[in-house]
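Researcher: We plan to redesign the surface later, but first we want a full-length starting point. Tokens attached.
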């Protein structure tokens, strides 16, 4: 009887050590998990979208005509290229991933700690009689953000910057004013953030005609 009890206790001790070791192994499929992401770049494209407002804001992506898009469906889409990291890193634990793959049972969604400081947009053609080529156009755009926590939210530019936003999953720049002409034009975007390493990004879109 004593021998059987002793063997049972040894078995329980072995199982406990196995489970503990498995849960703390960095390659385990159930952790550890990156808590935040750093923005290392952006993918910037002209996008054809439909904005739905029946029950909050939602966006549908449409197939883009490379030559033209209507002012109601025109958008400049910015999506961050992310590098994941831990806020607090345990000893001997890998601290960074350069891809978007997370472990299957991740308990939280990584977020950004970077704060967007300013945005600027200009075009290679005059936008209207008041705004010449390469002058500031950000006031002619509203900003729609998408995040896993809050879904879609729409702001004017002053409202957006005043909210001290962190980097969302996606930024949509949508026109609130139509351009006077319908010639193909391309846009330049200047982006500044308070980040971990890189703080300034500049992009130029492809040319597209914006129609009424």
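Model: Full-length starting sequence:
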């Amino acid at each position: 009887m004593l021998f059987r009890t002793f063997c049972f206790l040894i078995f329980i001790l072995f199982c406990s050590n196995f489970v503990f070791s498995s849960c703390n192994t960095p390659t385990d499929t159930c952790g550890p998990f990156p808590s935040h992401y750093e923005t290392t770049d952006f993918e910037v494209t002209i996008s054809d979208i439909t904005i739905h407002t029946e029950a909050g804001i939602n966006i549908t992506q449409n197939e883009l005509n490379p030559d033209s898009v209507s002012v109601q469906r025109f958008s400049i889409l910015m999506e961050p290229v992310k590098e994941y990291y831990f806020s607090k890193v345990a000893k001997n634990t890998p601290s960074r991933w350069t891809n978007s793959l997370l472990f299957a049972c991740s308990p939280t969604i990584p977020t950004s700690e970077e704060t967007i400081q300013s945005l600027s947009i200009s075009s290679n053609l005059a936008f209207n009689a008041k705004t010449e080529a390469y002058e500031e156009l950000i006031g002619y755009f509203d900003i729609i953000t998408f995040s896993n926590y809050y879904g879609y939210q729409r702001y004017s530019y002053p409202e957006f910057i005043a909210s001290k936003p962190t980097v969302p999953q996606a930024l949509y720049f949508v026109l609130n004013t139509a351009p006077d002409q319908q010639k193909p034009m391309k846009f330049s975007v200047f982006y500044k953030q308070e980040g971990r390493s890189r703080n300034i990004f500049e992009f130029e879109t492809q040319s597209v005609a914006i129609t009424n």
